[in-house]
C-alpha cells in the first residue's frame, strides 16, 4: 500500500527572531488566530521581561486586533512595535526562516501524522538554535537580495 495524503491538516508556527544573535522563539499551534498569537506574544514577553524588545510585525488581521493592541500597549514600557506596510514580506527578515522551514524541512515529504510534522518543525528549530549563524544568513541574505 502506498501512503497518500488525506485531509490537508496544517500547523501554524508563530515566531520571533533576534536579528542580532539569530536565536529564535517559536510556538507551534494548529490554529492561526488572534487568541493563539496573543498566547505566543505573552510567552515571548514573559521570556524577555527583563529586556527591551523591538517587534517587527506584519499586517496579518490577527496581529492587529484590539486584544493584541491592548497586550502590546500593556508592555509599552519595554516593547517598541514596528508595523510593516501591507504586502511587504521582503521587509520582514523572518520570512527567510519561514522559506527555509518550508523548503528544507517540510517540502515534498508525506508525514503521515500531524505529530510527525510537528516533530520535524521542532527538530529544524533545534538545529537552527545550535547554529544561529545559519538563521541569520537565511534572514539577511534572502531578504536583502529581494530588496536589491
Overview of this structure, please?
With 148 residues, this protein is an alpha+beta fold. Helix content is 47%, strand content 15%. The chain has a single domain, classed as 2-Layer Sandwich (Nucleotidyltransferase, domain 5). The strands form two sheets. A two-stranded antiparallel ribbon has the order 1-2. Helix 3 packs across helix 5. The protein is globular, with a radius of gyration of 16 Å. The mean pLDDT is 86.
Q: Give the proportion of residues in helices.
A: 40-55%
What do we call the CATH topology? Nucleotidyltransferase, domain 5
User: Would you identify the CATH architecture?
Assistant: 2-Layer Sandwich
Q: Report the uncertain regions.
A: none
Helix/strand order = EEHEHEHHH
In the CATH hierarchy, what is the superfamily?
Ribonuclease H-like superfamily/Ribonuclease H
* Shape type: globular
Structural class: alpha+beta
Tell me the β content: 5-15%
How would you characterize the largest beta sheet? 2 strands, antiparallel
Count, helices: 5
CATH class: Alpha Beta
What is the structure about, briefly put?
With 148 residues, the protein is of the alpha+beta class.
